[in-house]
Structures are given as structure tokens and as C-alpha cells.
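Notebook entry, structure prediction.
Reason for the run: the old model in the group folder had no record of what sequence produced it. Starting over properly, with the input documented here first.
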Amino acid sequence: MKLYIINHSFAYELENLTRAFFPNEKLQTIKDSVALEEPYVYTEVSNGNLKVKVSADGKTEEKAVLANEDDDKELLLATLLYDCLSKICKRDLPWGLLTGVRPVKLFRKLVDSEGREKAKSYFNNTLLVSDAKLKLAEVTEANERKILDLSRKDSFSLYVSIPFCPTRCNYCSFVSQSVEKAKHLIKPYVNILVEEIKETAKIAKDLNLRLETVYIGGGTPTTLSAEDLSRVIKAIIESFDTSFVREFTVEAGRPDTITEDKLRAIYDSGCDRISINPQTLNDSVLEAIGRKHTTEEFVSAFNLARKLGFKHINTDLIAGLETDTVGSFKNTIDGILTLSPESVTIHTLSMKRSSFLTAENKLITENENTSVSDMLSYAYTKLSDNTFRPYYLYRQSKMLGNLENTGWAKEGFDGLYNVYIMDETHTILACGAGAVTKLKAYGSEHLERIFNFKYPYEYTDRFSELLERKQAIYEFYEKFF
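New structure, fully documented this time:
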């Protein structure tokens, strides 16, 4: 599909909106006034006249408006485009004009600046957000706010990356290495990671920063041996001042990597939150997505974690997985609730560019969009009925149904790190391959990033260069703290 951008600079937003309606189309953006080739989206601004014309699937829709000098032309153009696209596709988007990652953050800004009722009206009437998603955003924002208020000027969180997995799931686009191919890299990787943790802790100490949350993620951290897990966690606890830490999470992830000695290594080190992520409790779906474990193995791992004393266990699920149905997804939700985890994250499948699904040219169909919406509705109702509340929410491009990912938790069991990283509340110091340090200037939206090398072999071979990069943390705090 061709997207014509004539006499304006709003290509990014209009591209995202077009993709939301036509997720399978490859967009070609054209900024010259040339002959139109179907299918196309034509957008033009000329002397205050805004024009949109869409031709696709044998149908054509056209809208125009004369803008005043002080009108938001980008918003007006997006509204015209949305109207045309929704008529051609015969559907509305649950989040309306919103295509960004953080709708709840936008809602909070509007509440703070305009008041709650005006914020709700703007979401509904201007951004065309559905009543259901407005309610979800409002409730999530209220729960998020309590967590954000815990952060201070000197607060930061620590992220530690373990970029190894037993196998790669077909929906995944993360830069992680399968253990089969990268087993020889694990020991040298852990050795260097421990050194980076120590160096990062020194920087935090020099700057008098206060550690609030720790998150060991990946990949799958439990691909490490119990000994290596202990080494990493011990390095964190011995190097950083953890006296103010509110939450320490290890993403146990894949049930097929969980053993009693690994769980003991995590628990005995003082970690108070783990995430065991089956994604589905349907064995045929697990096989279809490339997971090498069964539902029974997940339940066994969950029960073992509970038996060893873990008081906060999170589980991640995905709506819209290949071969899953509304019925089998409902069974997954019901099965998870019988285990009574403290928090549950419901993800919507995103057709990520570098995943196996996308490489296989898997297309998003209207039936899938409808099904995944029904899946989320069922999950949200059942979780609410079982005393869970939404505490964070974010969105990604090319999600089925143009929906969202939402974290749900029982009272007192919110995942604090999840909120801080998604809201960009405070600095995140990051260690490990593929990790990104995000430096946040307190009281502003200013954010700077320091990227670690993506691949474990790069990370170990160029470690001295990485440490040089991290000296920029000092310069940032001298300027903004």
C-alpha cells in the first residue's frame, strides 16, 4: 500500500494509523505528488485545506476540512484518515486514534493538566477511544499513580540481562541465544556480567543513588545453572546498597528450565518475586509455538516454587497464539486462577518483524482480531472477579486487534519495576548483553540511553569499551541532578 504525504510532516503518525487497519500491508511512503496507484492512502495539506482519500479493497472514501490557523493539523488529519479507514474496513479501533506505546501515561498527563472529566472526554470524543479501553486506562492510571509516588529524585532501578533461552519461540523477536548453540558462551558471559555489576554499583554509590527495584530478565535467566544464578544475585546484593529495595524479581520464565536447586538459589538469595511464564495451558499450542514443555511441567514448577516459600509468583500469558482458540484460552485463564498466582500479565500477540511467525508470512485475519478481543474480555472479567486489578499497561505495533498488554495483580503485589520501566519514571541502570541504560532527568521528560552490545560474544570481547560508555552516567548526573 502506498501512503502519499503531501505538504506536511505527519508521516509517522499516519503510517502507524494505517498499519493498525492494514497490518499485513507493506507501506511505501511517497512525498511527491505523482499519479496515484491503488491501494493507497492520500493525505494533503494545502493553504489550510486538509484532505484524505483512501482507496483499497475496491472501495474509496474521501474526507476534507478547512483548518483554522491554531488548529492541531496532525490531529485533524489523523481524524479524517481514521474516518475513511474505519468505513472501508467496516470496523473501529478499540484505542481510536492512539497508536503510541503508553496510553495510560498520556491519560495521566491530561488528568494532571485538565482534570479527570476533561481527560475522559478528550479520550472518548477527540481520540475516539472506546468506553471499555477508557475505563481500563482510568483504573490502571489510578493504580499506577500509587507506585509512581514511591519514586524519589535519587531513585533508580537495576536491570540485569541473561540473553539465553532453551529454544526460541515462534513469536519472539528478542536477541537471545539458544543454549544448544551458545552453551560455551555462558561461563565467560557470567564472569563479565559480574564485573559489570560491580562497576555499575560503584557508579551508583559515587552518585549517591538509591536502588528501588531489581529485575533479572532475558531471555530466560533460569537457563543458567544454580551456581551461576547464585553468582549473579550475590554480585548484586554484595555490590549495591539494597537496604531500600522494594522488589527483587527473577524471571524464571520457561518451566522446562526450572529445577529445585535453581529455585533454592533464587529464594535463598532473598529474591521475593519470580515470574513463571507458560503463555498457554494448551499443550498443542505450546508445541505449535516451539515450547519444549507441557502444561503439567508448568504446574509442577509453580507448585514447587510455592512449596519452597515464594510469596509472589507472576505468570505471563499470551492471547492470540497460533492454533489457540477462545475456548482453549478460557481454559488457560481458568487453570491459572486455580493456582492463585499473585499477579498475571496478559499479553496480546504482536507480529514482530524478526519473529519466525513474520518470517513465515503469517497474516493477521479479521477472525483473529475478533477472537483475541473475546479472549481479553474473558480474561479481564475473570481476573476482576478474583480480586485482581490492572496496574500497568502498554502497547506494541502490529498487535492483533490493535489491543494491549496489561499487568494484573492482587492488592499489594504490583510489579513495581514493570511500572517504572514503562512509565520511564526514573533511571534504569542496565547490565548484560542487549541491555539499555535509561538515564532520566528528574522532573522532566528528558531521557538519554546507553546501549550495551547486543550479542554475548560482542559483550565479552568488547567489555572495556562498554565500561567506557558507562562513564557517561557521571556526565549525565553532573548536568541534570
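Summary: Residues 179-206 form the longest helix (28 residues).
The old model has been moved to the deprecated folder.
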